[in-house]
Design goal:
alpha+beta; single chain; 7 strands; Alpha-D-Glucose-1,6-Bisphosphate, Chain A, domain 4
Length: 153
């Protein structure tokens, strides 16, 4: 998969948007600091073991997601664009292949709008995952809010 951010249509992307009642700098830290990210990444009940987290363009993020009952899911990713504190993008080297493009925007002093986009090369690949991930992405953001409530700048 290319390291250029994919150009998609609404049918080849899955978008989750949430306004968080926390400052942008703190929200960005929750996504960029592995000590926080490992605590909330993934749907409800999932935990993580991070093996590598090199937060720079071209840097690797390698981890295992552990399912609540069964299953360990290897994830190998590469950061393709980082603009602190506004944008983080990565691509997956493990299947299913897609890119993640996350933007952070201050709306008010303690409000940040996060737009999380899963970008796919084809509409078919997107539509295969869409029924499963929309609710799971919301669970992921629920866990993010819990982690943010424990964090400080």
């Amino acid at each position: 998969m290319t390291s250029d951010i994919l150009t998609t249509t609404p049918d080849s992307e899955i978008v989750t948007t949430r306004v968080l009642n926390f400052p942008q700098e703190l929200v960005f830290k929750a996504w960029s600091d592995p000590e926080h990210l490992k605590n909330w990444w993934g749907p409800k009940g999932f935990t993580n073991t991070f093996h590598e987290f090199d937060f720079c363009e071209g840097g690797k993020w390698s981890f295992i997601m552990h399912g609540p009952e069964v299953g360990n899911y290897a994830n190998d990713c590469e950061f393709i664009k980082i603009e602190k504190p506004n944008l983080i993008a990565w691509k997956r080297h493990s299947k299913p292949l897609f890119q993640i493009l996350t933007t952070f925007e201050t709306i008010a002093e303690n409000q940040t709008k996060v737009i999380f986009k899963m970008l796919f090369e084809t509409e078919d690949e997107c539509q295969k995952l869409k029924p499963y991930v929309v609710d799971k992405n919301e669970e992921n953001f629920d866990k993010l809010e819990v982690e943010l409530s424990k964090m400080h700048l």
